[in-house]
UniProtKB/TrEMBL annotation:
Coiled coil: none annotated. The chain crosses the membrane at residues 61-83. It is a multi-pass membrane protein. GO terms for molecular function: sodium:proton antiporter activity. It comes from Microbacterium paludicola. The keyword Transmembrane helix applies. Its main location: membrane. Keywords: Cell membrane, Membrane, Transmembrane, Transmembrane helix, Transport. Belongs to the CPA3 antiporters (TC 2.A.63) subunit F family. This is Sodium:proton antiporter. InterPro entries: MrpF/PhaF-like. It is found in: Cell membrane. One of its GO terms (cellular component) is plasma membrane. It holds the Pfam family MrpF_PhaF.
């Protein structure tokens, strides 16, 4: 049962990541790419969270916090860049 659950989770996250990477590559605007990269970071966080639940540990929490901080700072940077460019 555990192996089936892991397989389903891996397939779901792999499909979501592939679609997100397509959006990052295709674009068409920088804002689309920024949102897609935020979604990809969120997917990484979800994979780490699922791994922690399946293996019943909490060792990945510091890594998750760093990834979340990178996502927030990246979004702020892109928003500031677009706001300056639009002026």
């Amino acid at each position: 049962m555990k192996a089936l659950l892991i397989g389903v989770i891996l397939v779901a996250f792999a499909v979501a990541a592939a679609l997100t990477i397509v959006r990052i590559v295709v674009g068409p605007s920088i804002l689309d790419r920024a949102v897609a990269s935020d979604v990809l970071l969120t997917e990484v966080l979800c994979v780490l969270g699922a791994e922690m639940v399946i293996n019943q540990h909490a060792r990945s929490i510091p890594i998750m916090l760093i990834i979340a901080a990178v996502g927030v700072f990246g979004s702020i940077s892109v928003a500031r860049f677009v706001a300056r460019r639009d002026r």
